[in-house]
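Workshop exercise sheet. Pairs work together: one partner reads the sequence aloud, the other fills in the structure field after running the prediction. Swap roles for the next sheet.
Pair: D.N. / O.F.
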Amino acid sequence: MKICVCCSLSFTDEVLALAEELERRGHELLLPNSVVKRLIKRADFDPVKTKVETDAVRKHIDKIRKADAVLICNYDKKGIANYIGANTFIEIAAAHYHRKPIYTLNPLPDQQYINDEIQSFNIKPLNGDLSLLGADA
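Structure field:
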């Protein structure tokens, strides 16, 4: 299955390790360019400048459109369990618009400002079980 991975750039190391596992399982992955290039590790990294210069949002939504499914890597961040940030939320909305199955690696977060939307998008939490990817397709 062709899977587009969406995540916070803070999760670069975790996502790269997860990508290796998913590829071993036979999946084709579409990763954020900023993760592949490990841009967050650069001393001169500026998230806004990087997003503008690389057209990151538009390019990643193109990847979502080409994928069979979307996997949200929602690890803990900023004291929030299973965090979903603003950019990842945009990508979830794009996946929903393009009628892609949406999975989260971990349970859905409790983030009041997006709870209603997250619950309305028919997201399937994997609860860490990668064998469930595409099982309902």
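Discussion prompt: The domain at 2-131 is CATH 3.40.50 (Rossmann fold). What would you look at next?
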